[in-house]
Amino acid sequence: MTTTKNFEKQTEALIDDLKSVCANYGLGNDGNEFKIITQVFLYKFLNDKFVHEVKKLDKKIAEADNWETVLKSYNENDYEMLMMQMSESTARIQPSQFISTLFEKQNEPKFADIFDNTLLDIAKENSDIFSVITEGGEKIVLFENISKYVTDKRDDFCRAIINKLIHFSFENIFHEKFDFYAKIFEYLIKDYNTNSGGKYAEYFTPHAVAKIMARCLVHEKVSNVTCYDPSAGSGTLLMNLAHQIGEDKCTIYTQDISQKSSNLLRLNLILNDLVHSIPNVVKGNTILEPFHKDKNGRLQQFDYIVSNPPFKLDFSDFSADLDTKENHERFFAGIPNIPAAKKESMAIYLMFLQHIMYSLKPNGKAAIVVPTGFITAQSGIDKKIRERMVADKMLAGVVSMPSNIFATTGTNVSIIFLDKQNKGDVVLIDASKLGTTVKEGKNQKTLLSTEEEDKIIKTFNTKTAIDDFSIVVSYEDIIAKNYSLSAGQYFEVKIEYTDITPAEFASKMKAFESNLSELFAESKSLEKEIQNNLKTVKYE
After folding, report:
1. Which of 222, 309, 397, 535 is 20 to 30 Å from 85 by CA-CA measure?
2. What HEC string does 485-534 produce?
3. Do 123 and 92 form a contact (C-beta atoms < 8 A)?
């Protein structure tokens, strides 16, 4: 544990060093700093992963005092044979592309070009496995020309970068699992995955929300399943879900309109040993042009779906294009109206919710973050969706989260759980009173303790009723309550009685009478005073 903690600090120090280099060359708080930091970090990680795998395959390299010298002595055929033995999760890297090689070349003329071309060549050689695709079929490769973002001293900038990478290695932590890499990933992108991103801002889903969603969806052994997020962002929900299932027991599919998010998701997949799913990462508009389809051209259906969709977004520029026969089935409850004043307040989450219901396999399960107002709205698309969930008996439960669980938005949220096999009771949980409020920047944020997270998960999975916390209801109960999914509306109203003696009762009644007499007397006094004051009012 101590070793892991130390390495975590070293990794964070490396990230801070890279940010410092960017700042020293005029890129601090620059929009391009994100691209540089994440790509350089990824280059370092892939380089060290390659070395780690090579040493496992070749004992001679592992035992050598200088592994680079031994590896560079291999002829072309032997080197190719070695690479053929490596897993697909390891990027193919040539000796000329090692960090150690670039370090040795740093004093050569036009070093920035050498640095950039090295990364571009690695991207090209590994494009089949490591590329994200767009809905139009274009490939977004691993790396781009990094030094172009620096206006002056490009060679010096690249030298500074390579000097930060040479004295640090990831080799000793490739056996670590999800929790370690989740912390590293969050630290790496903490300054870049915020709501300052403009129209398509990516919100980082809190770990507590992701954990609850994953563990309420999967609480038994499963294998060979498909997992999908139609608004994937940087992949927090999917990483938690894959970890709960087992990274080697699931295949991930995603779509997100943001290229920034898609690149972050790719990085997250690489860190968490899910490289086999990178070809399924798509940059595109899920609502207008859903990408993943079966061999018959119909939308693909999935075993598990998780999503924290954008709640409000202007999609009026393509809403008219959704009027197709297939979309009539997909968007069965309708398309939100375009507000007269604020188009950006269009409730796009209702579109994602319908898309998810349509994309579930007959035995599929889903967990979706929604604004809490959705669970009680008594008209419109919101209610139609809830009615369909009940009519099709696919509702597993609802968890209403504490306010400010997302520091970036004041909207209260709930998690809707769907299970097409749940033909019995539904569990409704009101977790709004849990958590501790802390300050995060300028915002308030509510943090759940591990015990509170576990309480929610256990209550949901065991379908346990707890006073003022959870209730187990039937589909008929929900219909009788006009399809409300708020746990509080089902809680029994309890009146507490206290036994008292006749003497105590008489004493209380006497006190009430005395208080009333005093109040009535004061009332009469005020009444007379008001009347006397009115007599003094004169017209002038």
Report:
1. 222
2. CCHHHCCCCCCCCCCCCHHHHHHHHHHHHHHHHHHHHHHHHHHHHHHHHH
3. no
Kindly write down the DSSP assignment for every residue of 376-443, as one continuous string.
T--SHHHHHHHHHHHHTT-EEEEEEPPTTSSTT----EEEEEEETT--S-EEEEE-TT-SEEEEETTE
Paired with 470 in beta bridges are 429, 466
Q: For the segment 250-308, what is each residue's pLDDT rounded down to a tens digit? A: 999 999 998 888 888 998 899 888 999 999 999 999 999 999 999 888 999 999 999 99
Position 195 scores a pLDDT of: 46
Q: Are 137 and 149 in contact (CB under 8 A)?
A: no
Looking only at the bridges linking them, the beta strands covering 360-371 and 302-307 are parallel
In this structure, how many other beta carbons lie within 10 angstroms of the beta carbon of residue 246? 13
User: In angstroms, rounded to a whole number, what is the distance separating the alpha carbons of residues 34 and 29?
Assistant: 9
- pTM value is 0.85
Supply the DSSP string of 463-487, one letter for each residue: T--BTTTEEEE-HHHHHHTTT---G
Give the mean pLDDT of 206-217: 93
Asked if 332 and 275 count as a contact pair (C-beta separation under 8 A), the reply is no
Angle at 414 between CA 411 and CA 419, to 5 degrees: 150
Residue 163, both tokens: 């000097």
CB-side exposure of 135: number of CA atoms within 13 Å? 18
Cα distance between residue 382 and residue 401, in whole Å: 19
Is-contact 363 301, C-beta < 8 A?
no
Q: How many secondary structure helices (H) and strands (E) does the chain include?
A: 20, 13
C-alpha–C-alpha distance, residues 334 and 344, integer Å: 18
Cβ atoms < 10 Å from Cβ of 467: 9
Check: CB of residue 398 under 8 Å from CB of residue 416. Answer: yes
Closest listed residue to residue 215, CA positions, set 458, 511, 479: 458
| C-alpha dihedral sign at 475, 477, 478, 479 | positive
Check whether 375 has a pLDDT greater than 90.
Answer: yes
What tokens does 210 get?
A: 């992701």
Q: 435: phi > 0 → left, psi -120 to 50 → alpha, else beta; which?
A: left
* Three-class SS state of 10: helix
Residue 148 tokens read as: 């172009």
**pLDDT at position 83 over 90:** no
Q: 3-class DSSP state for residue 186?
A: helix
Q: What is the DSSP string of 337-360?
A: PPPSS-GGG--THHHHHHHHHHTE
